[in-house]
Design goal:
Layout (H helix, E strand, L loop, with lengths): L12 H18 L5 H11 L6 H16 L1 H11 L10 H16 L5 H15 L4 H13 L13
Helix pairs in contact: 1-3, 1-5, 3-5, 4-5, 5-6, 5-7, 6-7
Length: 156
């Protein structure tokens, strides 16, 4: 990974939460043996500084949500990744996609365009130079199929 979450001017607790969540999801891809709650606790114990309560809560919600819906999220990725088998997608990019798709489908208070933009920025920061475009392509295709407004919360 290129870098880790760090507090910078202008980086909100949700961005930090997403960055932490992507790292936890990546670790889960590597270690499927450790129970989820134990893995989350171990992740937090490895951090050099204590995250804000808001970032921590948001990150854990995303990780638990992705973990509980992993198979369905992977099916969405498969259906929208043209000419790419799931096992050919970089693990980190797959984690970013899963997180964004979970938000787009299950976090009605977050506009889908926010989820897409955040995923692109995280992909650019943590993954390869091409990852931002790849992530954008898949998430944009999914966004066009959502039954809710792309630029606002559901029902709003």
């Amino acid at each position: 990974m290129k870098g880790g979450p760090e507090k910078k001017g202008g980086v909100g607790s949700r961005r930090l939460g997403r960055e932490y969540a992507v790292q936890m999801l990546y670790l889960r891809e590597v270690d499927r043996v450790t129970e989820l709650e134990e893995a989350i606790a171990a992740f937090w114990s490895m951090q050099e500084s204590e995250p804000t309560a808001a970032a921590k809560t948001f990150a854990e919600m995303l990780v638990r949500g992705v973990e509980s819906r992993r198979e369905g999220l992977e099916e969405i990725i498969k259906a929208h990744s043209q000419n790419w088998a799931l096992d050919r997608i970089a693990v980190l990019d797959k984690c970013i996609l899963q997180m964004a798709l979970f938000e787009m489908h299950h976090c009605n208070d977050i506009p889908p365009v926010v989820s897409i933009n955040e995923a692109i920025e995280i992909a650019k920061r943590f993954s390869t130079d091409e990852s931002g475009r790849f992530v954008n392509g898949i998430l944009d295709r999914v966004c066009h199929e959502l039954l809710r407004p792309a630029r606002g919360p559901a029902g709003g």
